[in-house]
Each structure stands twice: as C-alpha cells, then as structure tokens.
Amino acid sequence: MLWEIVIGLEIHTQLATSSKIFSGAATAFGAPPNTQACAIDLGLPGVLPVLNAEAVRCAVRFGQAINAHIAEYSIFARKNYFYPDLPKGYQISQYEHPIVGRGAVEIVLDDGTLKTIGITRAHLEEDAGKSVHEDGLFDAIAINDAATGLRYSGIDLNRAGTPLLEIVSEPDLRSPHEAVAYARKIHQLVRWIGISDGNMQEGSFRMDANISLRPLGATQLGTRAEIKNINSFRFLQRALEYEIDRQRELLEDGGVVIQETRLYDSVKDETRSMRSKEEANDYRYFPDPDLLPVALDPAFVNAVAAELPELPDALRQRLQLEYSLTAADAISITASQATAAYFNQLVQQIGDAKLVANWMNAALAAALNKAAIEISASPVSAHQLAALLARVQDQTISATSAKQVFEAMWAGEENGDAERIIAARGLRQISDEAALIAIIDAVIAANSQQVAQYRSGKDKLFGFFVGQVMKQTRGQANPAQVNALLEMRLRTD
Amino acid sequence: METSTVTRIAELAKLAIAPAECPHYAEELTQILAMIEQMNAVDTAAVTPLAHPLQLTQRLRADQVTELDQRELFQQSAPLTREGFYLVPRVIE
C-alpha cells in the first residue's frame, strides 16, 4: 500500500534576553549550577512573576516576520506536571490565547518550487531546569547513604525560567526532507531577526515532531506518535525516517499505532517509547492567577514591524533579480545576516556578484564547513577576500593560483594580505606578450618532432605544448593568452 | 465517579491514597461534580470568559539582570546538595 507521511513540528527556541521571562536572574549559558536561579525561578513561596518586556517584543517580532495575527490580548496559563526540574509543579505557558496566531513560511523544495507551510501558533513560556543523571556523578553519596541506598539525580535550575517561544506548525510537512527544510527555515528566521542565537549545542533550538501515516488519498489523519527533544537537523531526519519505517511496518502487519511520546536515541539510531508513567500527563491548564492578561497596543505592534530588517525570502528574491544569481546561490548567501553582509561588502568592493557568489559558496563555504565555524568567525574577512578577487578580475593571478592564495590567507600567511602572498609565492601571472612569445618559441624550437606531427594533423598535441609552456612558466602564464599565442605561433612557420 | 478515576487523579496529584479510602473519596467527589453540573446548567453563551478578576493588564519589566547569586542562602533549606546541584532521588532508570 502507498502511504502518505504527515509531519508537524513544535520548535522551542530560547529567546535572546539578558534576564529570565518572569524574573531578573541572568540567562547566560554555562554558569556554575544554580548560580542564576533566584527565588522566583526556584518557586519559593510568596514570589510573583513579572513579565519581561523584551520576551514579548521578541514574540511579536517573530509574529510579524511570519505574517501572523498578533493577539491584542493574550493569557498565560499554568501547565501542571511533576518533575524535579520544575520546582513550582507547573510551567507558565500559554494555552487558549497565545501571543502569535496563524502565520506561514515558505520552504524551497528540491525542484526549486516553493511550498507554504502553515504555522498554527507561537506562544511564550518558561523553560524548565536541567536534570543530571550521569552514572557515578552522585553515586558516591548513595554508597555512603547506607540507610536508603538511594541513587540521586542532580538538579540545576539555571535554565528554569529562560524565555522560550514555542512555534507550532500545521501538519503540512510530507517528508523528513520537508521537515528539515522547514526547521532550517525557522532556525534561519529566528537568528535573522535576532530573537534567538539558535545555538543547537546549547539547547537554544529544540524540536518535537508529530508524525503519522495514512493511506495515500485518505483525508483523515492517522494516529500520530510524538518524538521529543531532537537537537540537530541530522537527528530530525534520522528520527523521522526510523519512525516512518516503524509505523509502516506496524500498519502493514495489521497493527495499530499507539498515540504516545517517543524519544530518539542517536546512538542506537532508533526511537523508543517513553515509559507510561512519564506519559501519564493531564496538564490541567488554567489561567495563571499571578499574571494579568497581556494587552498589546497596536502602535507597539506596528513599531516592532517597522524595525524588522529585510527578511531572507525577500532578500533572496532581490538578489536573484538584481544580480541574476541562481536560486541555490541566493539561498546560501541569505543563510544568515552575517553571510548576506559578507556578500554585500564583497559586491560593493569588486562588483561581480557571480564571481563573489562562486567564491563564497565554494572555497569559503568548504573552508568554513571543514573548520566548523560560522562566517562571522572566518579568518578571511570580506575585505581580505575582496583584495584577492580583485587580482583574479584583473588577471594578475590565475584561478588555480587564486585558490592557493585563499588557502594561504586562511592559514594567516602574510597577515592574510593577498598582494603580499602573491608576491611572496611568485604567483603573478605572466601576461606580457613578448615574454610569453619568447617562451613559446623556445618550446617550439626544442620540440621540432612534435611540431611536425602537430602540423601534419595531430591536433591532440596542442595540449602538450600548453603543458610545456606552463612548465616553463611554473604555471604562471595566463592560460587564455597562452592558447591564443601558441595557436598563432604553431600555425605560422 | 469510579474509584479508578480517584486512583488516576491521586496519581497525577502525587497523593498517596489507600485503596480502602477510594470509595469514600469517590462519593465525595461525585457530590462536588453534581454541584458543577448545576453550574453548567447556567446559560453563559453571552458571557465573555474571564481570564482574571482584576480589570487590569499585565505590567512589563525591563530586560535587566537584577538578581544576584544567592545560591548559598537558598541551598541552606534544601535537604541535600552537592557541587552546587540540588539532589533528588534518581528520576530515571
């Protein structure tokens, strides 16, 4: 049977505020345990939450970027469950009246067509703390604690109360590939508009996937499973692929999919059911009496919209139009604000957008990828690369030499100064016609046999002469010029 | 209300209720539900749901770090701490 895959994503993105969503404790990553957890974050009796204006502004900014309805009134609710890293016994979230309503983003499919993915809602909430269960970490205490023999988990509440924006998509995604494209789109967007650093290693961007299968052509959705806490795009792809196979096998064997929460284990590359006890949730949402409804003034909402930078989709289209770039080139250049700024600076300095795009998406992209760093940390600045590309443009150096110069710049040779690297390595292309003719004539004189063969019709030998000239010039001759001059000298006698 | 519902509510609320007590609670909760049924009978179609009894809206605070580290003070009231962590009985596996 043919199955249709139906996927929806819930993405939790940490907002880039200095302080928590409901308290004045810091949100910096990596502080010693519990040094950024104040009385409010700990849920001590008698404390009251006060909403962070910047978290609200970030949410509105996102809403504007996806063309969503921004709620004039939104309400915070308590989501009740017990877990040691949630000291209050409830998470402050939004339920019935989220701050951001329906919106949409566009993803580019493999064949270059655009697909609109609906966003159901986005709401503000607080993050929970972290539990540390590593074997052995607190077990020494257990050994000493002969009375109980208990093993322990450590709780760090630094993350408790960090503002999150939960972005919920419609079940519009039809393959793991589309799901990854959508997740990347949201990741790009939240960083682009500066509401999140999107750092996946630090947990600033976490994904839950709802996935179900239905017979192709069916209109009713199948029973879904939810895969929780995926923190990389690669794992998202693999978790979904595994889950599709699992559900398909189950359904084709006449079984049923149980609605449940599953966890993806990246080591075993499989999803597995969470124990039923952890699943036995009934969140008993109700409006948080400690927080009043949030009212947004239309003037404020409009002001936030006015502050938005040009969005990546609009910039992508503009680059394609203005510079005749391919969609693929324009997509990579609009990956982040930093990439786009780098591109802009280069184009301003040297003009040729296609040349810039080629270099950014080939040599630079490969080097950044290999070093696993962002363009903002690139050892070769846009200014430095511009100096190199200018020498490619005026044919001072050949394309092959340019790659060498780039590698030397990347390694920090001559302080990354293109001119000095070209001089130090003697890479200046020989374009002096008289000098080249002298070399060519010497090559012709030294290889009279090959010349005779060539003149009697063995055209393939042309490459041999090019090779000889390049050898004599240590690769520094301008290839186009060598070709033209060689042809001329070999023809005439 | 069934006694099984009482057991489930107790589990969600992390309350230790002896099986023998369940029928008693089932009976009491059923009476409460009857009262709620009575309230449900009121026609509220034209009433806007009330999110908060105060006719005010939320005040916002500026995004500034105002809380200093008071870990030592807070951890004095915790039963068990190590290396800055609060310790709780192991919660998984």
TrEMBL record, chain A:
It catalyses: L-aspartyl-tRNA(Asn) + L-glutamine + ATP + H2O = L-asparaginyl-tRNA(Asn) + L-glutamate + ADP + phosphate + 2 H(+); L-glutamyl-tRNA(Gln) + L-glutamine + ATP + H2O = L-glutaminyl-tRNA(Gln) + L-glutamate + ADP + phosphate + H(+). Residues 341-490 form the Asn/Gln amidotransferase domain. GO terms for biological process: glutaminyl-tRNAGln biosynthesis via transamidation; translation. Keywords: ATP-binding, Ligase, Nucleotide-binding, Protein biosynthesis, Transferase. One of its GO terms (molecular function) is transferase activity. PROSITE patterns: GATB (PS01234). Pfam families: GatB_N, GatB_Yqey. It comes from the Bacteria. Heterotrimer of A, B and C subunits. Belongs to the GatB/GatE family. GatB subfamily. Allows the formation of correctly charged Asn-tRNA(Asn) or Gln-tRNA(Gln) through the transamidation of misacylated Asp-tRNA(Asn) or Glu-tRNA(Gln) in organisms which lack either or both of asparaginyl-tRNA or glutaminyl-tRNA synthetases. The reaction takes place in the presence of glutamine and ATP through an activated phospho-Asp-tRNA(Asn) or phospho-Glu-tRNA(Gln). PANTHER family: GLUTAMYL-TRNA GLN AMIDOTRANSFERASE SUBUNIT B MITOCHONDRIAL AND PROKARYOTIC PET112-RELATED (PTHR11659), GLUTAMYL-TRNA(GLN) AMIDOTRANSFERASE SUBUNIT B, MITOCHONDRIAL (PTHR11659:SF0). This is Aspartyl/glutamyl-tRNA(Asn/Gln) amidotransferase subunit B. It comes from Thiospirillum jenense. The lineage of its organism: Bacteria, Pseudomonadati, Pseudomonadota, Gammaproteobacteria, Chromatiales.
UniProtKB/TrEMBL annotation, chain B:
Its EC number is 6.3.5.-. It comes from the Bacteria. GO terms for molecular function: ATP binding; glutaminyl-tRNA synthase (glutamine-hydrolyzing) activity; transferase activity. InterPro entries: Asp/Glu-ADT_sf_sub_c, GatC. One of its GO terms (biological process) is regulation of translational fidelity. The keyword Transit peptide does not apply. The keyword Membrane does not apply. It catalyses: L-glutamyl-tRNA(Gln) + L-glutamine + ATP + H2O = L-glutaminyl-tRNA(Gln) + L-glutamate + ADP + phosphate + H(+); L-aspartyl-tRNA(Asn) + L-glutamine + ATP + H2O = L-asparaginyl-tRNA(Asn) + L-glutamate + ADP + phosphate + 2 H(+). Keywords: ATP-binding, Ligase, Nucleotide-binding, Protein biosynthesis, Transferase. Allows the formation of correctly charged Asn-tRNA(Asn) or Gln-tRNA(Gln) through the transamidation of misacylated Asp-tRNA(Asn) or Glu-tRNA(Gln) in organisms which lack either or both of asparaginyl-tRNA or glutaminyl-tRNA synthetases. The reaction takes place in the presence of glutamine and ATP through an activated phospho-Asp-tRNA(Asn) or phospho-Glu-tRNA(Gln). Heterotrimer of A, B and C subunits. Belongs to the GatC family. PANTHER family: GLUTAMYL-TRNA(GLN) AMIDOTRANSFERASE SUBUNIT C, MITOCHONDRIAL. This is Aspartyl/glutamyl-tRNA(Asn/Gln) amidotransferase subunit C.
